[in-house]
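Lab notebook: predicted structure, single chain.

Context: the supervisor wants predicted structures on file for every construct in the current expression panel, including those that have not yet been purified. This is the next one on the list. No modifications to the sequence; it matches the entry in the shared construct table.
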Amino acid sequence: MLVQMNHASHLPSLLSCRFHFTMSGNGSLETGCRSEIRPSNNTCSQKELSVTASAISMSVGIFSNSLALFILIKSYNRIRIKSKASFLLFASSLVITDLLGHLINGSLVLFVYSSHKKWETFDPHRIVCSVFGACMVFFGLSPLLLGSAMAVERCIGVTRPIFHSTALASHHMKRLLGLTWLLAALVAVLPVLLWRPYKVQRSRSWCFFHMEEPKDWLDVLLPLLFSMLGLLALLLSIVCNTLTSCALLQARLRRKHHCRGTSYHIEMICQLLAIMLVSCVCWGPLLIHLIMLSTRAKHEPTSFSLLMVVRMATWNQILDPWVYILLRKAVLRKIFMLFHSCWGPKSHYLHRWQRSMLRSSMETSNSGAGPSDCRCLGRFPLSDTTIKSIT
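Prediction complete. Output recorded below exactly as produced.
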């Protein structure tokens, strides 16, 4: 009896960890551990790591998009060329959309983590989940649609410059921008309108379409609509950017490098190609994964892979602004001169590049928006003495 009492008295000191089991909303079993000797464990460290990663991603995204927006607004106020102004309007709208996406979605993620993912407590009517899911869809689909609209606008501006300057006025571009946002918003609120609300995913940190064990064809149609629109936007961007690049290359091969506007056309097509590459790498896995999940009859637990591709897609909003920050004409020229310094101090191509850039900048500053964006200047070439005196 004395031995049993001694064992009973030492029992609290031996039990250094208390386990509590709670059933999550989707039936998964979560285990928490609180130790008196070591207050942190694997579960707590993973939670802190997720919160830290979300906060860092939100901060970097807000800083990058704010810097890119400052550069684009400064260029928009300085530029006088009509087609360049249309491109900067779409680019600024894309950066603003990415900025708001990081700010709103990041705030919702931090709020969910601060509430310990207890959706039944802070969101009994699923209002926060509906707003969270709609924001995920809207801020995910808008950059893809805006990127395709920019690619179409540049393709028309390069291949059909007269039609672009006469038929596509500034109010047409603003209407197209509004329709792009309206389409993304319609897809985002469609599950709520059809009484197919967004569902808390297995990780309980975000909300998205109801894809596991769909009840009817609507649960399959909604993620398929999102994925097909995203893939169609990427395909349209690829086709238009390819046509634009071929047109510019053909003009270069025909020795039309003295035409006004060639330098900023090359700058914009470099930015569009970079945006297209980033979108394909970041969004391609998620869009294909959603199609695979929606078309399969029986789903396996794929919460970790789905969460991984969603995190990969969020890097699109972080990398997009750095395209406009790094791929500018001044930066490209410095990179070209840096490579040239390694190859040799004297080169005919560098001299021709400097003359072409100087002509484009002088004509842009001395002339307003005309009916056409490409005017050849072969009749009035600048002499080398004039170029050296100006520089």
